[in-house]
Specification:
The chain has five helices and three strands. Helix 2 (26-35) packs across helix 5. It has a domain at 17-96: Orthogonal Bundle (Arc Repressor Mutant, subunit A), CATH 1.10.10.10. Helix content is 48%, strand content 11%. A hairpin with a 2-residue loop joins strand 2 (69-74) and strand 3. The protein is mainly alpha-helical. Pfam families: HTH_5. It comes from Gordonia amarae NBRC 15530. Residues 101-124 are annotated as: Disordered. Residues 107-124 have a biased composition (Low complexity).
Length: 124
């Protein structure tokens, strides 16, 4: 993996933006977390997430189009897996960050929900 991306590298920023956009859903985050331990078929993901099959399939399609997961046929099923471990690290790091306690003096009193508390101002 190349780490030579710079703030001036528009193509790298756009690619990273597309990746983060694909991950920007609680359902898709759940799918990535479920796939950390290995390949799963849609029915296994439905059971693990407690969601409908059409909804899980729709989110898998977004993740597949973004290069986050890939599918391989195994008999009558398609087994989905993460393209690489970096993707699981991105999601787990984001979860850790989102659940860390925040010091209101740091200006993070809004927390992960994006709501403002009394007396705080919105960022511009």
């Amino acid at each position: 993996m190349s780490t030579s991306a710079t703030p001036e590298d528009l193509a790298a920023r756009e690619a990273a933006s597309e990746l983060l956009r694909a991950l920007a859903s609680p359902t898709r985050i759940g799918i990535v977390l479920a796939l950390r331990s290995g390949s799963r078929c849609v029915h296994e993901l439905v059971g693990a997430l407690g969601l409908s099959q059409p909804l899980v399939s729709q989110h898998l399609r977004v993740l597949k189009d973004a290069g986050v997961v890939r599918g391989r046929r195994s008999g009558r099923e398609i087994m989905y897996e993460l393209v690489d471990d970096h993707l699981a690290h991105i999601v787990t790091d984001a979860l850790i960050h989102a659940t860390e306690p925040r010091d209101p003096a740091d200006g993070a009193a809004a927390g992960a929900t994006g709501t403002r508390t009394a007396g705080t101002r919105a960022h511009k």
